Each structure stands twice: as C-alpha cells, then as structure tokens.
Amino acid sequence: MLKILLLEDDPPLAETLIELLSDEGYEVTWVKDGESALDVTFDKSFDLMLLDVNVPGLNGFSTLKSLRDAANDTPAIFVSSLDDIRSLAQGFEAGANDYVKKPFDIDELLIRIQALIRKNYQSHTDIIKLNEFSFYINKGELYKEDKYISLTEYEQRLVKLFFQRLNTTILKEDILFETSGGDEASEGALRVRINKLRKLGLGIVTIKSVGYRLEEGLKEAQN
User: Fold this and answer.
1) Predicted structure pTM score
2) How far apart are CA 4 and CA 163, in angstroms?
C-alpha cells in the first residue's frame, strides 16, 4: 500500500482528505505541524507528501526545505490557499514537485498525486515496460518483444522522456529543452523522430498546439 504524509492543521479538511485518499487505497499519516512532519519522516518512509504551508510552528516551506537538506527526495505537493506568484516560487524553491491552490478539485488532486507517484517510481526503475516494449533507462536501450531497436542519441533521450512520463502530456517546449542537442533541437526534427517512433508501434498522441503524450495500452499511433 502506498503511503502518504499529510501535513494539514485544519481537522475537517484533513479528515476529508484522509477518507478520500483511503478510499483510493493510500495509507495516510496525518500531522498538524512542521516539527511533527520532520519527526515522523525519520521513523517512516513515504511515497508522497501533501503539505499545507500555514501550519503551527515550522511552516510547510521550511519543513520541506529541511527535508530536502537532509537528502529526503520524497515527492511533495503543496496544497495551500497562498496563490500569489511569490508563494508559488517559494514553494518550488523549497523543493516541491507540484503546487495546488485551495480550494481545489479533489479529482484533479488525485490525478496529480497518481502522476507524481508514477513518475517517481519510474525514475527509480531501470526497466520500464509498455505493451510489447521494454526500455532500459540506464543503458538507453529499447526492445520490442526482446528484439533490440537501434536508436540515435537524440532518440534515446526522447524515448526516455516519454517512458518516464507515461500517460502524461508533455509540452512541446519541454520536449525540445530536454532533448536539445545541436540542430536536433527543432520542431521539424522532433516531428521526424516522433513519426519514426510511431512506425515502431509506440502510441504517441499529438495534443494539438500543446505537445505529445505516450499512452499506456495504446498500440496504434495517432497523429
């Protein structure tokens, strides 16, 4: 069972989140202040942390910064009523992976939680499997039904990005940044490489005017 640390000083909201997350199969540990959050992380490991900012004692920002300084890389989402740009920036500077503003849609929060846990799990897994494909992260090697597929260095970076962010829409600009390398860092080169991967059987979907997404379970390429 995946474990979530919840730092929230509002009992009604905390109880609601605990009930909803428990229904989704998560085990939730609830603390009301930053010091308690630090204490519990020394005794227990978590798959994700949901952190309010304005809590008694050590606030959420300082709590997460302390954890990051102690080499704790557990994915963290701030859930806060602070919605100004400065607070948003401070949250990410403290080491957050995501920031959700209150009031929030519970379905959206669940989607963000699931995506972040999946991404973190895949980033620590050497082999990611998708349908008949297997991608070895450390070696940058792609196999289809155990048959090795030769990839250029650029294509390796592209496939790695798609596999590690499976079922997640990736902005075109982010793809170009992550895979940049000389003349390859252009939209034209990106389209050529994506078309090649589609011909191999990877279900890469175009999200018009936004970016691309590699979908689990989709075996037919879509333009």
Assistant:
1) 0.57
2) 24
